[in-house]
Design a protein that fits this description.
Elements: H1 12-15, H2 18-33, H3 72-81, H4 87-94, E1 115-122, E2 127-129, E3 134-143, E4 154-160, E5 168-169, E6 172-174, H5 188-191, E7 202-210, E8 216-225, E9 231-241, E10 254-259, E11 265-275, E12 278-284, E13 290-297, E14 303-309, E15 316-323, E16 328-334, E17 340-346
Parallel strand pairs: 2-9
Antiparallel strand pairs: 1-3, 3-7, 4-5, 4-8, 6-7, 8-9, 10-11, 10-17, 11-12, 12-13, 13-14, 14-15, 15-16, 16-17
């Protein structure tokens, strides 16, 4: 009898667990399609391609300008490969580099005449004084305009208390830090004075004042003006008086109304301060120039003899004598052998003794 070998029909591969077989067949077909090696289902490692040595992958900004041979077709290809630019970036890129798109602020014009206050040199704000004390005030200011000052400016009183100053005076300018002693024939008053102040230059502005007789706080505001009256800047004085002073008729200390030696009645107030037998003081003449007084008082206090004049001069000799118990005075000023002028005044509520303001032998 012939023996037969049993041959399994190919369908038998799918007869059992046909669902599982179909799943596996699908997986194998998928892997084959993806190009993977189905052996062991693990892909072999891929060796990266070796780039030529002359290829440089680092971007550079050098030599970025296209050569003349750069063809239009290449430019088109390069523009095609450029990523799209947003609207904001497109607008920014269309503006040339360094171009200011916003409207600039207008540049202010520096005025021809202008002064800036810098600081107090003498008599800082809040300084205390005795009643009737004479003080020398010095401000440090700057010519911050574009024009030089040639003596055509004026220092005008604005508000507060004049402190025995005039309504207006020609300002006295000095080199910063000048040592100025209030006495006649002091060379610094003439040697260090400035008649021309350049733009950007610092100067010391000088004026004389007197502390009032009443206790309290006093403020004085002044305006520096140009030749046409234009304001340049303001300076300020603030002092305190320690106590109230009783007028002593034996002392020459006080604020006197006077007929000026220059002949103009009520030309200005005469500020005097007596210390022992020494007498000093000032008044502003009709032109606003300070006239300084250095004198000696007699033992009985009724007479005063000395000199008066501009601080940079040796002055002119004068003689004064009290009248009416100390409320008035009369005297003379000797400007020379042929220039003798009567001089008289009064303080408090007394009247100037014009009828007795005569030359004496």
């Amino acid at each position: 009898m012939r023996a037969y070998r049993r041959v399994r029909h190919p369908r038998s591969l799918f007869s059992k667990h046909s669902g599982y077989s179909l799943l596996m067949l699908g997986i194998l077909l998928g892997l084959a399609t993806a190009g993977c090696d189905v052996v062991g289902l693990v892909p072999e490692p891929v060796t990266p391609a070796i780039l030529p040595a002359e290829v440089n992958l680092t971007p550079t900004l050098q030599n970025s300008t296209p050569s003349p041979e750069f063809e239009a077709s290449d430019r088109g290809a390069q523009q095609t490969n450029t990523p799209p630019v947003s609207g904001i970036e497109q607008q920014a890129s269309s503006t040339p580099a360094g171009t200011v798109t916003s409207t600039p602020w207008p540049t202010p014009t520096t005025p021809c005449y202008r002064a800036d206050y810098l600081r107090d040199v003498l008599v800082v704000d809040g300084t205390r004084f005795d009643p009737g004390e004479i003080l020398l005030k010095v401000w440090r200011i700057k010519n911050s305009g574009t024009c030089s000052w040639h003596g055509e400016l004026t220092l005008q009183f604005l508000s507060g208390d004049t402190l025995a100053g005039p309504d207006g005076l020609p300002p006295l300018f000095y080199q910063p830090g000048s040592q100025l002693e209030p006495r006649l024939d002091e060379t610094n008053w003439s040697d260090l004075r400035l008649f021309d102040v350049r733009p950007g230059q610092d100067v010391d502005l000088v004026a004389f004042f007197r502390a009032p007789d009443e206790e309290g706080e006093y403020r004085s505001l002044w305006q520096l003006t140009g030749p046409a009256g234009q304001p340049l800047g303001q300076v300020y004085l603030f002092i305190r008086v320690r106590s109230t002073s009783e007028i002593s008729l034996r002392s020459w200390t006080g604020l006197w109304r006077q007929q000026s030696p220059e002949g103009a009645a009520q030309a200005g107030e005469l500020a005097l301060q007596q210390t022992g037998q020494s007498l000093r003081g000032y008044y502003y003449d009709p032109a606003g120039v300070p006239q300084w007084i250095d004198a000696t008082v007699s033992v009985d206090g009724t007479q005063a003899e000395g000199a008066v004049g501009e601080l940079w001069s040796d002055g002119s000799v004068f003689y004064l004598e009290k009248l009416a118990g100390g409320y008035q005075f009369q005297g003379r000023l000797e400007g020379g052998p042929f220039a003798v002028t009567p001089w008289c005044g009064a303080r408090g509520s007394a009247q100037i003794p014009l009828s007795r303001c005569l030359l004496q032998e």
